[in-house]
């Protein structure tokens, strides 16, 4: 009778250990699943952040390119305006010089 009680007690203890082992495994599986979910969410958030940074970088690059092109156009216009002004001034000086030389020729010849 004593042996039967010990065997029942051992079976009960084994059953309890198996139950505890199953509960621990279940809790570990829940923790692992939770960690996986957290990591996937974080990965998705980081991917979204990175895409936002890429989009902002592209926007800034477009803005910089547009500003550079506007600046080039402004410099080109200023250069053309300067050339036109210089040509006008040279033409005016040439006309004045021609007029002065005509007066000098009339004064010397006449």
TrEMBL record:
<keyword id="KW-0812">Transmembrane</keyword>
<feature type="transmembrane region" description="Helical">
    <location>
        <begin position="86"/>
        <end position="104"/>
    </location>
</feature>
<dbReference type="GO" id="GO:0016020">
    <property type="term" value="C:membrane"/>
</dbReference>
<keyword id="KW-1133">Transmembrane helix</keyword>
<keyword id="KW-0496">Mitochondrion</keyword>
<dbReference type="InterPro" id="IPR024461">
    <property type="entry name" value="CCDC90-like"/>
</dbReference>
<keyword id="KW-0472">Membrane</keyword>
<dbReference type="Pfam" id="PF07798">
    <property type="entry name" value="CCDC90-like"/>
</dbReference>
<dbReference type="GO" id="GO:0005739">
    <property type="term" value="C:mitochondrion"/>
</dbReference>
<keyword id="KW-0175">Coiled coil</keyword>
<protein>
    <submittedName>
        <fullName>Uncharacterized protein</fullName>
    </submittedName>
</protein>
């Amino acid at each position: 009778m004593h042996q039967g009680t010990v065997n029942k007690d051992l079976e009960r203890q084994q059953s309890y250990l198996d139950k505890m082992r199953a509960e621990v495994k279940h809790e570990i599986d829940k923790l692992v699943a939770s960690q996986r979910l957290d990591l996937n969410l974080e990965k998705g958030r980081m991917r979204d952040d990175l895409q936002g940074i890429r989009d902002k970088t592209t926007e800034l690059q477009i803005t910089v390119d547009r500003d550079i092109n506007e600046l080039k156009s402004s410099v080109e216009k200023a250069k053309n305006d300067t050339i036109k002004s210089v040509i006008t001034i040279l033409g005016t000086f040439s006309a004045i010089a021609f007029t002065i030389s005509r007066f000098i020729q009339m004064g010397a010849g006449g």
